[in-house]
Amino acid sequence: MEQKLLGRIVVNPKIMVGKPVIKGTRIPVYVILNLLGDGHTFEEIIEEYPDLAKEDILAALKFAARFAEFEEVEA
What we know:
This protein is mainly alpha-helical. It is 51% helix and 5% strand.
């Protein structure tokens, strides 16, 4: 399941300067994460970005979790 979700995220230097985006779109992962952080629901995000599916939003969350797991943060 996790690999299937993560397969929905692509990083390509020719798309959005290499920022992680939802496959087949130019919607960056960070946009989805910011909307979630602002309290928007999945339904509201999909209404704003009709090219997205619930699985795309879940993929963005899984991607962020994976990134945070392996990224070192200095306090």
